[in-house]
């Protein structure tokens, strides 16, 4: 029995003989009927998972899925008959994280190769033929996970103005209709749609009259198309792993490469030594059968029994032809197993078993390049290394990243190091390289220091250069040697993934002077509104004070305008005092405070936002939805909201104004939610809560001061009038009578009181 055949036979026996759990497309405790899949194209393909190197999919007259790089025998890949695919013809496939997506008979199916389960995608209402996506191999990063989850499905060749395109952010389980801005105005057929993370753009490939070009989704690339290139035949498009923006376009008579996500597409040249033999594959009159690529290398197997090899250089790409060998067959495919290591795979059927073995022809590229007949120059660099290789870093706004590398050139050579950043349009990210040479152990070494920062924060870029600097995205930085010889096989470029987004180690802290502990808060009904609309409540509110979360409150005198001192901390270390714009909201609905500035006093050119307008558009986000993503400055010249109410309180603190909080005459504790809303300060949602104790306010009078003044004035005037009139009235006849009555009453009271005292 052939190598690995025992394992396949045992697995096959277990599948047939043992009870099986029910699941999508399964029958419990029954043998499941299967339909063998096959690939629609006349040539074979091999798809290797960019992150899980042992997982690969072979597409040919038979389809094979392996989890161990075809080390053991493999059964033909099948789909359960219960999925009702009809004709089991595969037109496209894509690995999305831990699942394999297949377009079978114009429908999308999801196979979870870890759980061994099938699902039919939902949301795709029209026939589709292709599926596209990318993978990010840095686990634990949320933005990286979004890349692997995002997938497009479409029908190749549809008129692009009317094409039905679907997008999924759930790894293909659920799709929704996608439409790009001004798509209805585009002319031509749909050659593909891709999310180019190296540009933060969605690219539509337009094909019209044997020419093709990309249309992009966002500013500034949406103002024009990529440069047109020849589209002779239906091109298969490979996205090289690593988010560098490298695309490979090929079919039998054409091979093209783009290093900037389709903006420029160039033909791959064929060389002999340093001489260009042919400017393109079509001139070389060869027929491509299989193409393989990794992050930096490219290999081509032709029907003429030739193997071509080249590097995806930082400046140009070319191929050299290896010696003729009898290596081609109709079912053969190429696969890179490591840097400089290539395999030619061919499935071998066994008449005694349904399983297939794969014949492997290993090719050591480095050994072949040493053949003097190839006239390959010696590599000018002995060593290129850096601690940042294959790592992921984060750059937040107004942050800088320093990377270092070491280069050792061969004696009497002067190679030129180059740094390439894959995402200039969206990020404005610029790398500045400083070279420092020194001699050690007889060798001249070059220390390369690379500084990375967004150009707009350096003041080196036009604001219109970037698409949306407010939006987090990713970039790839690559350090390589200019015009590197093809013999520099082991000297692969140094690459790192840069997440331009939130630094999770950042947080904001409110500077405070602490008081004694407080445990209970009482908000009177006339001072708060649970709906945050500034209306009086119907009953008092008593809430506990969470000392463990809030600590001691800040002490603020009620009659002094105040604003908090906001500090930025990173990894437990103080960074700076935040001067960016931020907003406050009392979490229990207290509205007994206002602001020192109004809209016109803040010199607003348009109507400023406030908590009321934000709440109307917040939807399910709740009352605390004001953040950097929905903030629009009233000082922004692009804000066209007219200034209709200039006297409304201006509710934004920090930034260019001296706005402050003004408290009413009320002692008590306020618990504030604070949110940094300046979209150009940090990609993080910097938020926190803190407490303030307002003191020094005298109790409010029972009656309004105006009524008290009127009553006191009236009483004083009445007293003066009585002091004048009473003595004057006592000298009249009526006054004497009144006086006599009081005298008689006085005498009577004296006699009565004397009797009472005598008895006692």
Features of the shown structure:
760 residues; Immunoglobulin-like; cilium; mainly beta; 5-stranded mixed sheet; disordered N terminus; 50 strands; elongated; transmembrane; 6-stranded mixed sheet; CATSPERD/E_C
In which order are the strands of the major sheet placed?
Answer: 24-23-28-27-26-25
**Uncertain ranges:** 1-30
Tell me the β content: 35-45%
> What count of helical segments does DSSP give?
10
Q: How helical, in percent, are the residues?
A: 10-25%
Outline the biggest β-sheet: 6 strands, mixed
Mean pLDDT figure: 84
Main location: membrane
Domain CATSPERD Ig-like: 381-500
Keywords: Cell membrane, Cell projection, Cilium, Developmental protein, Differentiation, Disulfide bond, Flagellum, Glycoprotein, Membrane, Signal, Spermatogenesis, Transmembrane, Transmembrane helix
Protein name: Cation channel sperm-associated auxiliary subunit delta
How would you summarize this macromolecular structure in one to three sentences?
This protein is mainly beta. This is Cation channel sperm-associated auxiliary subunit delta.
What does this structure look like?
By secondary structure, the protein is mainly beta. Among the domains are: 268-375; 381-500, Sandwich (Immunoglobulin-like); 506-695, no CATH class; 709-750, no CATH class. It has ten helices and 50 strands. Strands 24-23-28-27-26-25 form a six-stranded mixed β-sheet. A five-stranded mixed β-sheet has the order 2-7-8-9-10, with no helix packed on it. β44 and β45 (573-577) form a beta hairpin. The longest helix has 27 residues, at 733-759. The protein starts with a helix and ends with a helix. Mean pLDDT is 84; it is low at 1-30. Belongs to the CATSPERD family.
